[in-house]
Design brief:
two-stranded parallel ribbon; 7% strand; single chain; 146 residues; mainly alpha; 6 helices
Length: 146
């Protein structure tokens, strides 16, 4: 799960997907395409909205997306088109490029919708992104068990 800072959207996506695939041996992680927040906890608003839905993401720490992630993961979900393009720029093979998808194409196939960046907005934005992420992760959880 990849966003820009790895403090708002992708930590939430990591926590939500982990909660849905908990008992299966599936590695779920998140990262940011920018390094500004490396080592930081998730944004307080993301921690809070996750907690509201029974998920603890407070122990996560931000890291930067790296080329190694193309080797370590089968699917790389970008939260928005800017992240998607930034990840693609780091891919050095067609196989790597093919791993990159927009998260919301799981719930809105082919529409290239984005999980909006909630960083500069209010608390309400975090409920919106939670719902978008939750629905997409439901689809992923079904897909990887069938
Ligand atoms: P995220 O949100 O990409 O969902 O983690 C942001 C976090 C920080 C910034 C922008 C977006 N920033 O500009 O610092």
């Amino acid at each position: 799960m990849v966003c820009l800072g790895n403090i708002c959207r992708s930590p939430l996506a990591e926590g939500v997907l982990k909660s849905k695939v908990a008992s299966r041996s599936i590695l779920v992680d998140s990262a940011g395409t920018a390094a500004y927040h490396v080592g930081n906890s998730p944004d307080k608003r993301s921690i809070q909205i996750a907690k509201t839905y029974g998920i603890d993401i407070s122990e996560q720490r931000a890291r930067a997306f790296s080329k190694d992630d193309f080797e370590n993961f089968d699917i790389i979900y970008a939260m928005d088109r800017s992240n998607y393009n930034n990840i693609l720029r780091l891919a050095s093979s067609v196989a790597s490029k093919n791993k990159v998808q927009l998260l919301l194409n799981e719930s809105f196939p082919g529409e290239d919708r984005e999980v909006p960046d909630p960083y500069y907005g209010g608390k309400e934005g975090f409920e919106t992104i939670y719902q978008l992420i939750d629905t997409a992760c439901d689809r992923i959880a079904v897909k990887i068990t069938t």
